[in-house]
Amino acid sequence: MKTYTRPMAGWWKRNPYYLWYMLREASCLFLTAYALMLLWGLYRLQQGKIQYEQWRESLASPLSLAFHAIALALVLYHSWTWFKIMPKTLPRIPLPDWLVVTGGVSAVIVCSALVLVLT
């Protein structure tokens, strides 16, 4: 008698929920490349002003700008999913879920605006 083996190929493509889940998980590879690029910038800064300025100039290329746009979209999506799960992971508080999510998103927007204004 042969045992049943469940087919696993493409399981995440059959359900939109799993498709979005896999997109969020796969974004870590892209964002790791982004973090390494920033670390390379710190390395170039340590080498001197000329090398650092060359690195900064390379960030103005169309390929780099596209890379940054994709990284921004992936980070925003990843952040949004974490804010959506926040009400489920917090200890019981007498607030509706939408208020917790809205509060978290609002806090990030305010902090980001402060960073932009103060720098």
CATH class division of the largest domain:
Mainly Alpha
Decide which structural class fits the backbone: mainly alpha
> In angstroms, what is the radius of gyration?
21 Å
Q: In CATH terms, what is the architecture of the largest domain?
A: Up-down Bundle
Tally of strands:
0
Q: In percent, how helical is the residue content?
A: over 70%
Taken from the alpha-carbon principal axes, the silhouette is flat
As a percent range, the share of strand residues is under 5%
Instruction: Give the terminus-to-terminus CA distance.
Output: 70 Å
Tally of helical segments: 4
The chain-level mean pLDDT equals 91
Biggest sheet character? none
Q: Write the element-wise H/E pattern from the N-terminal end onward.
A: HHHH
Unreliable residue runs? none
CATH topology of the largest domain: 3 helical TM bundles of succinate and fumarate reductases
Overall tally of structural domains = 2
CATH superfamily of the largest domain, by name, is Fumarate reductase/succinate dehydrogenase, transmembrane subunit
